[in-house]
Request: fold
Amino acid sequence: MHPQPPLRSTHIAGGPRNALVYDRWGKYGRPVLLLHGLLFDRTMWWPLGAELARVCTVVAPDLPGHGDSPERGEIRLADLARDLAGLVRRLDLHRAPVVVAHAGAAPLATAFAETYATHHVQTIEESGGEVPEHLQFYAEPRHGRGLLTAYANWPVSAGHAAGRGTGPAFPHVADPVGFAAGLRALLP
Reply:
């Protein structure tokens, strides 16, 4: 008999002005911080989080104004990177995270890595690609473009230069098992 994989649990980090709602799988090992693209939310990571949960701690926050995290005024990269560092520190895992960022979150991953201990940064560019029909729910934007005004000061192209992913826009959704295998190699 095989043990059950760690279940996903939902938490809140920060205070009233900088609250971040996040999902967590696992309690041990190197943390993997999953940052969704703008207009999406943490649910885009559920297939991958479940796949990685046996070997590490997976954390997928909703960025401000997305999913269940409350809106803020203007979102500054340095402030949000600091909030994410506090979230990782709160997990008490004592290891630098692997940071995976989808498309518009790439500048945030870069800002985080420039200031805080980071084991590896992997970005996924938004480009063409097919997502199987039963997984398309995870690859659909959840918010309108009006949300982007809070993120207007983020560099659009800087994130794509950080780690440059290639292939489909949602490889973590289209093939969570294969994508997880690639991340597992980064976890020691």
Remarks:
- Residues 77-90 form the longest helix (14 residues).
- Residues 157-167 have pLDDT under 50 and may be disordered.
- The two ends are 27 Å apart (CA to CA).
- Strands lie at 9-13, 20-25, 31-35, 57-61, 98-102, 120-124.
